[in-house]
């Protein structure tokens, strides 16, 4: 029995865009807490986005090798639903915050996703993204989907180079639990295009 694919729009920075994405049917919105990213948000910006979200839309915080004490302090003032770890975090680190979490894997030809899933077995899912040297995500690059094993024991979140044009093929071919998009629905780096967001969600759902 096939399920309806879930959609996460990542890298949102303002309340109006976040609310609009939710109204268009986004299941989750992502907030980036990573200084070098053009989508990085301050705590105040993140609080405003969370306050604008309607119920049953998951808020996801994206982190890259964040200092654990800093992250604990952040979680005291920011009620994120889910943590997304995009760096070289260990399973022990990921589970130390008492929150549900997912682990991102940047896929290369020699990446063993079954091993990753075993290592991070208590993650809520594995997010697979393109490997681009020196960039932890949001690159807009796709990767070879045939590298994804069919029998992955964790829910699969497909990311990397997705856009309104190719997402329906991706969903049809991979049947992931969810798809995650950031640069593929932007008019400029870090600026979401709500028309593209609407097209992306519609294409993902009607794959």
TrEMBL record:
The annotated pathway is: Amino-acid biosynthesis; L-tryptophan biosynthesis; L-tryptophan from chorismate: step 3/5
Reaction(s) catalysed by this chain's protein:
N-(5-phospho-beta-D-ribosyl)anthranilate = 1-(2-carboxyphenylamino)-1-deoxy-D-ribulose 5-phosphate
Q: Name one Pfam family in it.
A: PRAI
**Residue limits of the N-(5'phosphoribosyl) anthranilate isomerase (PRAI) domain?**
7-202
Instruction: State the UniProt keywords alphabetically.
Output: Amino-acid biosynthesis, Aromatic amino acid biosynthesis, Isomerase, Tryptophan biosynthesis
Query: What does the sequence similarity comment in the record state about its family?
Result: Belongs to the TrpF family.
Q: What is this protein called?
A: N-(5'-phosphoribosyl)anthranilate isomerase
Protein source organism: Silvimonas terrae
Q: What gene name is listed for this protein?
A: trpF
């Amino acid at each position: 029995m096939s399920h309806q694919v879930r959609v996460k729009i990542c890298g949102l920075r303002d309340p109006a865009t976040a609310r609009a994405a939710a109204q268009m049917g986004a299941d989750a919105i992502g907030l980036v807490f990573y200084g070098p990213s053009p989508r990085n948000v301050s705590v105040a910006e993140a609080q405003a986005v969370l306050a604008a979200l309607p119920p049953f839309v998951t808020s996801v915080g994206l982190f890259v090798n964040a200092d654990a004490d800093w992250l604990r302090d952040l979680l005291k003032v920011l009620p994120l639903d889910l943590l997304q770890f995009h760096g070289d975090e260990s399973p022990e680190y990921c589970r130390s915050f008492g929150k549900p979490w997912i682990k991102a894997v940047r896929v290369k030809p020699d990446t063993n996703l079954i091993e990753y899933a075993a290592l991070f077995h208590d993650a809520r899912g594995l997010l697979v993204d393109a490997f681009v040297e020196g960039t932890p995500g949001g690159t807009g690059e796709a990767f070879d989907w045939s590298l994804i094993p069919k029998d992955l024991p964790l829910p699969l979140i497909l990311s990397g180079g997705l856009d309104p044009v190719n997402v329906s093929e991706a969903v049809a071919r991979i049947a992931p639990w969810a798809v995650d998009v950031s640069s593929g629905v932007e008019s400029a780096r870090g600026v979401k295009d709500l028309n593209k967001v609407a097209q992306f969600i519609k294409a993902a759902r009607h794959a």
